[in-house]
Structures are given as C-alpha cells and as structure tokens.
Specification:
The two termini are 27 Å apart. The chain is built from four helices and eight strands. It is α/β, with parallel strands linked by helices. Strand 7, helix 3 and strand 8 form a beta-alpha-beta unit. Strands 1-2-4-3 form a four-stranded mixed beta sheet, with helices on one face. It is globular, with a radius of gyration of 15 Å. The chain is 37% helix and 31% strand. It has a single domain, classed as Imidazole glycerol phosphate dehydratase, domain 1 (Ribosomal Protein S5, domain 2, 2-Layer Sandwich).
Length: 178
C-alpha cells in the first residue's frame, strides 16, 4: 500500500492506494470529484482512500490528482505490463485512453472541462506516465469526463498486470541520489 500526504496552505490531502478490487472511500467535499475518484478506483481495480479539503475547487482537484498520481507511481510493480489502451462508450460519449506507465510524463488531451483536463495532466505528471486522451464523440461534458476516468481506469488496470519481465530495452531503470 502507498500512502501520500500533501499539505499546503491551500489543501490537505491524504491518499492511500493499493492493488485490490476497486474499493473506494472518498471524501473531498466536491461531489463530482468524489464520483470520478470512485469510478477511477472501480475501473482500475485499485483500492483507493482519499480524504481531502481545499480552499478552492481548482486547488483541491489539482492537489488530489498530484497525490493520486504519486501513489500510482509508487504502487506500479517493476515487472508490470506498463501499457494500457482502452476506448469506452458512455451514452453519446466515446473516449479513448492510451497509457504508458514507464516513467516518462507526457499528457495530450484535451477534455471539455478545464478542471478535469488539468486533473488528467497533473495525474499523468505525478504518476510519471504518458497519457493520451481522445474524445472521439460526445456532447455532454459529464459523460465525456466520466468516460475518460473509466477509460483511464481500464488502461491502468491493463498496465498493472504483473508480467514477470521488464518491458523496456533499457531493462530496469533505477534513479538515485548520491
């Protein structure tokens, strides 16, 4: 289990994440964010507990993404499949997520909500992952954002599959401080 605590003058965030069955306990004071985090946990198969408070929606959403991303980076096994790719329909929305959890950050969107597009960017940066999200169809922002969280969850579930081998021509990468 990985536990991340992030405290600033603006936010207090506590995240616990482990490989499991997708159980979530989330309390942020922001109902839609709570819903997206529960959805993310369910579809990724990761057990997630988030307790968060913040002064502004933007700070809260961004800092939760940072903490969840950092926890994902800590929890990913060295011999994980690393890659995940899923398309997910939700009513009129269709969203594609392609993920490489191999240690290099890149994000390409956008989502039609600047707050949740920023969530995805902050998550990818702190998960040290490459994440491409494509909105293939959709008119309802709620459906598009929710489909993106579900597609990301499924892609992450695929990336977390234990393979017994390192998927990199470099072999295992180790970064240390001397």
């Amino acid at each position: 289990m990985s536990e991340i605590t992030r405290e600033t003058r603006e936010t207090q965030i506590r995240v616990r994440l482990s490989r499991g069955t997708g159980v979530a306990t989330v309390s942020t004071g922001e109902p839609f964010l709570d819903h997206m985090l529960v959805t993310f946990a369910r579809y990724s198969g990761l057990d997630l507990a988030v307790d968060a408070r913040g002064d502004l929606r933007h700070h809260l959403i961004e800092d939760v993404a940072i903490a969840v991303g950092a926890a994902v980076a800590l929890e990913l096994p060295a011999t994980a499949a690393r890659y995940g790719d899923r398309s997910l329909p939700m009513d009129e929305a269709l969203v594609h997520a392609a993920l490489d959890a191999g240690g290099r950050f890149y994000y390409r969107g956008p989502l039609p909500s600047s707050l949740y597009d920023h969530w995805m960017r902050s998550f990818a940066e702190h998960a040290r992952a490459t994440l491409h999200l494509r909105v293939l169809r959709g008119t309802d922002r709620h459906h598009i954002v929710e489909a993106a969280f579900k597609a990301l969850g499924f892609a992450l579930r695929d990336a977390f599959v234990e393979t017994g081998t390192v998927f990199s021509t470099k072999g295992a990468v180790s970064v240390g401080k001397s």
